[in-house]
Amino acid sequence: MKRVYGNIVKRNSVYIAIALLAFSGLSACKPKYGVNETPVMTTAAAEVEIPMDFDQIHNDVLESVSPSDYPFVKNLNISGDNSAKTVNVEVEIVENVSTEALNTFLNEVMKTIANEAAIQDFRYSKSTDTEYGSFFKKYSVHYIVKQGEETVEDVTVDPGEAFPFSA
After folding, report:
1. Is residue 151 part of a domain?
2. What's the distance, CA 88 to chain centroid?
3. Is residue 141 part of a domain?
4. Is residue 138 part of a domain?
């Protein structure tokens, strides 16, 4: 009986030793978390041009600007040229649209364009209640508002200039 008891104790001691060794080995391998002295950040050189994907901006603006909020808009098309640094906005509206409603719509479109540009190039700031971010300080905007065959507005806003409607 002592012999059986001795073998059981030896065997259990071996199992306990292996378990302790495995546990100490596993606990020693955990990653160490600490604060870096300088944070790792993705940066892009200011002089490197990141071309805007105007097809993506067009699609994102169409998704963001709800047709139920602006039922007077028949069609909206946004395009652009990276080499000329221009954004073209073409809007077709129904008859009898107030200037206030049109300006509210154009304000929302410009804010959304600027925000989508800031997503594509994080160096641009996003729109706020008082400004359209920094995208339109680098890109000009040419917008045309048509009502059937009649042109209601045909305006070009150069980079850094104020829009004729409020931000």
Report:
1. yes
2. 20
3. yes
4. yes
pLDDT tier at 3 (50, 70, 90 boundaries)? low
The whole-number pLDDT of residue 82 equals: 96
For helices 99-120 and 54-64, the axis angle rounded to 10 degrees is: 130
What predicted TM-score, i.e. pTM, was given to this entire model?
A: 0.72
Q: Count how many domains the chain has.
A: 1
CATH of the domain at 144: 3.30.300
pLDDT tier at 100, thresholds 50, 70, 90? very high
What pLDDT was estimated at residue 46?
64
More confident residue, 21 or 111: 111
Q: How far apart are CA 120 and CA 52, in angstroms?
A: 7
Number of other residues whose CB lies within 10 A of the CB of residue 52: 21
State the DSSP string of 10-78: HHHHHHHHHHHHHHHHHHHTSPP----SS-------TTS-----HHHHHHHHHHHS-TTT-TTEEEEEE
Domain assignment of residue 122, given as a range: 54-157
Give the whole-angstrom CA distance, residue 68 versus residue 76. Answer: 14
Q: Identify the bridge partners of residue 154 per DSSP, sorted by sequence position.
A: 144
Q: Three-class SS of residue 133?
A: coil
